[in-house]
Amino acid sequence: MNEHGTITNDYDARMLDVFRYVVAIARHGTITAAAREAGISQPALTTALRRLESQLETTLFIRGRKGAELTAAGRALLPHAERAIGAVETGVRAVREVEGLSRGEVRVAAGATVCTYVLPPVIASFRKKHPGIRFAVTESTQDEAMDALEKGEVDLAVLGSRAGEALLVDEMIVVASPKLEVVADTPIVAFRAGGSTRQLSDRYLASREIAMELGSVGAVLANVEAGVGVALVSRVAALRGLGRGTLVEVPDPRMPIVRTLRLVHRGRHLLSPAAASFRRALLAAREAKVSTGPERGRR
Questions:
Q1: For burial by CB atoms within 10 Å, which of 105, 236, 286, 295 has the most?
Q2: Domain for residue 145, yes or no?
Q3: What is the pTM of this model?
């Protein structure tokens, strides 16, 4: 490193690979596991890491019998390494896609309801026009999705946030099995903690005990239909069950809870061609009305 804090030799060309090693070690907690993920030998990874530490004139990891732990310098480097990897991958994808939408990838993070009921028809329609585009859809809590977006791990996120482009006005309702006698202490089938639906459930149904926690909207609805308890869900998710009579809407003067789901990204200028095109497809689809099906059951 020179007096200006710049690495001056040919190590720059391999810096991205070493950044990947740093991120992998931090994630797995051991050099052995990181080397396995990177597809190189442990000695080779150790040598690359030591060379980086020498160039930076610091120690990034403390090695011990329990594995490798980030030092203060390592913790300072980690988020920048993650962003650098994300930026380069975005750039590589953009270059590969300049020929058009013949190939590419769109990475989306969203909650369970959006992943299950909102995205599939839009993705299916998009892929009919652009079959070479691959999708990586991650079911995430709001915090997880925002973290992935900031790190450049996803292109688009659908969130119940105040910022972003309005995508869907969603109604949250309480549902139950028509076979279940709903009383004040009927328990809840809840989503896992951290998600926006769980936050609303904790707020509006705080007097009810939680019978179980589940990560999938399909699993939540299946257990509600079986009579395990009531649940706060999106009306979009409950439409099929309400229509066929396996679910009923539980009367509650506070319902429905109306929320706006928004499409969030780091800026249109940072989107790859494929992601930019899918963004436009999502915004075009928002005008379509969601069919409410047969008369909704109430209890």
A1: 236
A2: yes
A3: 0.63
Per residue in 94-151, pLDDT tens? 777 655 677 789 999 998 889 999 999 999 999 999 998 999 999 988 889 999 999 9
The 3-class SS string of 103-135 reads: CEEEEEEECHHHHHHHHHHHHHHHHHHCCCEEE
Domain extent, residue 109, equals: 95-164+262-285
Which pairs with CB-CB distance under 8 Å and at least 24 residues apart come from 212-219? 214/189, 214/190, 215/112, 215/139, 215/191, 216/112, 216/116, 216/139, 217/112, 217/113, 217/116, 217/117, 217/191, 218/116
Q: What tokens does 185 get?
A: 């202490």
- Residues of the chain predicted below pLDDT 70: 1-13, 97-100, 287-299
Q: What burial class does residue 289 get, using C-beta atoms within 10 Å of its C-beta: 0-12 exposed, 13-18 middle, 19+ buried?
A: exposed
Secondary structure percentages of the chain, helix, strand, coil, to 5:
45, 20, 35
Strands 188-191 and 133-139: unpaired
Q: Does one domain contain both 271 and 142?
A: yes
d(CA 159, CA 46): 40
Check whether residue 174 and residue 255 sit in a common domain.
Answer: yes
Residue labelled with tokens 């396996």: 246
Segments in the chain forming alpha helices (H): 15-28, 31-38, 42-56, 72-96, 112-113, 119-129, 142-150, 196-204, 217-225, 235-244, 273-285
Q: How many independent structural domains does the chain possess?
A: 3
